[in-house]
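wait is this the right file?? whatever heres the structure
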């Protein structure tokens, strides 16, 4: 007795099909134009979505900056037993640096902190480079206050 598979075709089905007619260049061009049209329509639908996502991304960036600053404040308080002062002063009572300078080591900016002369004012010529190097954690891109990355959006009193 011979085993036969009822699902196995007895002949090749491709042999019984008529040959396909050749595709003309004009038809290929139409297919390409249709595909490009679909792609352009999809791009047109996505552009407004990306525009509306930008402000939300900026707000999220600000929120993440605040989280980093709160964590830095908590770490500072853990190390020193108090929160950083709003500003430091010299012996004559002149303001030198803000709380942001004191938080630099806690926002992964130890190298910048080490380069700052803490006995001189933040805007003294010897510390001028620090203003140009201000970490982005102190800047909120969603703020309409200033587009200058050297200014800060977060204040303490």
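ok assuming it is, sequence goes like this
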């Amino acid at each position: 007795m011979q085993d036969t598979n009822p699902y196995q075709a007895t002949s090749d089905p491709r042999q019984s099909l008529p040959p396909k007619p050749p595709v003309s260049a004009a038809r290929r061009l139409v297919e390409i134009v249709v595909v490009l049209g679909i792609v352009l329509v999809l791009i047109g639908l996505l552009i407004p979505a990306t525009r509306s996502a930008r402000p939300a991304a900026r707000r999220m960036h600000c929120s993440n900056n605040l989280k980093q600053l709160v964590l830095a404040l908590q770490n500072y308080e853990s190390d020193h037993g108090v929160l950083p002062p709003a500003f430091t002063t010299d012996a004559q009572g002149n303001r030198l640096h803000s709380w942001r300078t004191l938080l630099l080591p806690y926002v992964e900016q130890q190298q910048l902190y080490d380069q700052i002369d803490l006995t001189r004012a933040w805007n003294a010529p010897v510390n001028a480079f620090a203003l140009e190097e201000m970490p982005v954690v102190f800047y909120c891109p969603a703020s309409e206050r200033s587009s200058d990355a050297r200014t800060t959006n977060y204040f303490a009193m």
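Strands lie at 87-89, 95-98. so i think its the right one actually
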